[in-house]
Amino acid sequence: MLEAQLESYTQLREDMSRRDRSLREKVMSLEEAASFVQDGMKVGIGGSTMSRTPMAMIWEVIRQRRKNLSVSRCIISTDGDLLFGSGASNHIITSWFAQGILWGLSKVMRYHVETQGKRFEEWSHMAVGMRYRAGGMGVPFLPTRAMLGSDVMTQRPEAKQIDCPYTGEKLLLIPALNPDVALIHVQRCDAYGNAQMDGLQFMDIDLALAAKSVILTTERIVSNDQIRRAPDHTKIPFFCVDAVVEVPYGSAPHECYGLYEPMMKHMEAYVSQVNSDPINGMKEYLDKYFYSPKSWNEYLSLIGMEELLEASQRGRSIYND
Amino acid sequence: MTEAHNYTAAEILAVLSARQLRDGQVVFAGIGTPLLAATLAQRTRCPALTILFEGGVVGAFVEPGKLPPSTNDQRCTKRANMVLGSADVLLLLQRGYVDVGFMGGAQIDQFGNLNSSFIGDPAKPKTRLPGTGGGNDISSLTNMIVAMKHEKRRFVEKVDFITSPGFIRGGNTRAESGLPTGGMFRVITELAVFGFDDKTRRMKVLALNPGVSREEVQDNTGFELHFDEKIEVTAPPTEHELQTLRMLDPERLFTA
Fold it and tell me: Which residues of B touch A312 (CB under 8 A)?
């Protein structure tokens, strides 16, 4: 098996031709949308670090007890902990994996990688971007000049070093990544899935284009007329999108640009709980915040009104002069 | 440092790092001391410094007291010139738009290679570290300033794993590996300022920080240090530098 998980171009095109790309409404619940994520799939996660994490969708996927997911994200944070800790994933492809720079190493990641045989497949940040971009371009690789000479490269035989046929220089070919499903959270979209993102886009456009299906969670569903008033803000076209779910505070306790910053009290409590005991601390966290709540709203109320309001005040202040 | 100073180790690290930047440069800064020091330079000597962050920010102008918890948070964008996708801002390095990369380091060796991936054998690591992030891209593609804590276990003869390449095994090995440009320019610690020999590419001490002896630097370093012929003593942080630094980071997020 080619570890780079490359797909044949013919297969990618066949999958695409079978996909319903018509202009149709695709609004559904988190529970319904989770059916796009099946055991063993390659799942791409949008946003980066603590920003625009599709946490509500990850929460639902973990609640539905998915297994053996191969997850990729440009930089992964507590969502990576939760995917390993819940048993939903045994393989994470990323450039950086910890809870956040403020908290040092993730003991959850360390426990699962050092003692449980789970895989943290490391690429440079730009290389993750080139994997999605090649996937979105419909080509098997893109050449780069990063990673050469490093042990990050020697750990990744999937990346091929070549002599450039034009110049003779050494280049590294970064293989495409076409996730089976991408989970992306945005500020707003319409019922068709035309998605508008504010602020940092990270790698979400390439990820959406590369993936074989996209579940979009959104803070607000707006009318198509509203989308059409500012088409330059639309970053993902509807025909990439297979499901639309309206989930206010869908990145909590992480940030969603212009709406709320990370909920730092919750994050700090989480980090201290799971890092002091990566097995039981994680189990207790998942029981309380993931498995017990009846709804996403109930999860939010566990985080607490005060914390949500405070994060919202900081989040909205980005637009203050 | 044996003498009493009116600044902490983290503060002199930020101040001396900031002094390495020149007005008009384009700097790609990592989180922590690099972000803080680049912002300090911008608010003191280098008003025309252009700061990039891997989250996709071009021309950052971080607000005092609102330092971002990572370079991928909304705070990085406040009053910036532009936001790009993160792959695109990293590609600016490859095209050559960036004068200097500026990062922290967990472990460094005599050729300036940085390790932030594994302690011990990667196949059976004693400790799995968080990994490269943009560090490998930055250090592969531009000239580097590294700001880090000076400890014997962090300054090793040979890193366990090259996450972010310096001069690889010295001499021409960096260029021969396919990295014809960039490389380590300066390493800044609370004890000294280091450069690299033009030929051997080994680390050497350029300047000692106030009150620090050669022996103290050597004792805290896990390999034999070379000293430049004309060793200087760095000027201590000025009141203006310290005041500006404390105004930028009143909660001491990155200067504790």
Answer: none
Complex-level ipTM? 0.96
Nearest CA in chain A to B58: A200
Q: How many CB atoms lie within 10 A of CB B3?
A: 7
Tell if the CB–CB gap between B140 and A150 is shorter than 8 Å: yes
Could you say which of A101, A204, A205 has the minimum Cβ distance to residue B69? A101
Assigned CATH for B9-248:
3.40.1080.10
Encode pLDDT of B55-73 as tens digits.
999 999 999 999 999 999 9
Query: A152, B75: Cβ pair inside 8 Å?
Result: no
- Best CA proximity match to A117, nearest among A153, A142, A92, A150: A92
pLDDT tens readout for residues A297-314: 999 999 999 999 999 999
| Partner-chain contact A132 B87, CB within 8 Å | yes
Q: Where are chain B's structural domains?
A: 9-248
Give the pLDDT confidence score for residue B2 in this predicted structure.
45
Enumerate domains of chain A plus CATH numbers: 38-126+177-319 (3.40.1080.10), 144-174 (no CATH)
| CA–CA min distance A101, chain B (Å) | 7
Going from the C-alpha of B126 to that of each of A65, A106, B109, B207, the distances in angstroms are 30, 14, 19, 35
